[in-house]
Fold this protein.
Amino acid sequence: MAREVAEQLLTMQTAEGHFPFDPQGRHHTNLVDWAAFWRPLGQPGDPCLDLNVTAAMALLLAVKETGETRYLEAALKALDASLKWDRPE
């Protein structure tokens, strides 16, 4: 199962290391639909800190389960790409 999730994440990762927002696919929820009436939660393809870090955590868990170093490389790439964002707190 970990390998399947990691492989799917690798297909979604951009060359820069981001995991872009996909409101019609992976990130589709009722909240996304309702928010679109007033103000969308994001534009398709937008990167954000939460999406990158969540995917990186899943990849790190896959490394623990499978030992695949390419999952580690992808996780580190996502975390490096996330360094450009500042948290408000």
Notes: The helical segments are 2-12, 30-38, 49-66, 69-82. The chain has a mean pLDDT of 85. The first helix runs from residue 2 to 12.
